[in-house]
Amino acid sequence: MNQFTFTPFPNLTTERFALRQLKIEDEDEIFAIRSDDNILKYLDRPKANAIDDARQFINKINDSISKNELIYWAINLKDNSKLIGTICLWKISTQQSNAEVGFELLPDHQGKGVMQGVLPKIIDFGFKTIKLQLIEGEVAANNLKSVILLEKHGFVINRRTKNTVVYSLSNSKEKE
Questions:
Q1: Fewer CB within 10 Å: N-end or C-end of the chain?
Q2: In what order do the strands lie in the sheet with 134-140?
Q3: What is the pLDDT of residues 28-60, one digit of tens each?
Q4: 168: Cβ contacts below 8 Å, ≥ 6 apart
Q5: Measured between alpha carbons, how far is 154 from 171 in angstroms, rounded to an integer?
Q6: Taking the C-alpha atoms of 56, 59, 62 and 64 in order, what is their torsion angle to the nearest 10 degrees?
């Protein structure tokens, strides 16, 4: 896999959305995502208990981006800079040329085609820009919206764990 750098940050756009770097001004929305019980029921992570948890998370993510360990985008509508969700490529392995995709949306924006519009851009970035050979997505088996999203974009079941299903998408075909 080629070496890559996330500096300058790779802002991306789709027809409806802008993907940009997290900023401290996103702390309220990040706190809302990271403390929402309906989102957390599908994830194995501690609940954010204070706005400072969100600030620390934003700083940790941006530090990891500066070290080229992961790439994490804030999602907002093109005409509004307020964060509505996030999407990332993390667990990036330069030796195995793979990464894991992760995504979250504020509840008010779920079911409105946000990830349908954004995920293809991230897949394209992973395969074409950082030359990944495989992108995985690990989801709770009962998270049907995420399962459907991944399957709709060509991900197939790779393996199952006790509570999750790991999907993968291979870059074996030439992407145009």
A1: C
A2: 12-13, 17-21, 71-77, 85-93, 98-105, 134-140, 164-170, 156-160
A3: 999 999 999 999 999 989 999 999 999 999 999
A4: 134, 135, 136, 137, 155, 156, 158
A5: 11
A6: -70
Global confidence as pTM: 0.94
Spell out the domains of the chain, with CATH numbers in brackets: 12-131 (3.40.630.30)
Nearest of 99, 96, 76 to residue 88 by alpha carbon:
99
Q: Helix 114-124 to helix 144-152 angle, to the nearest 10 degrees?
A: 50
Residue 84 CA from chain centroid, whole number: 13
**SS3 sequence, 76-124?**
EECCCCCCCEEEEEEEEECCCCEEEEEEEECHHHCCCCHHHHHHHHHHH
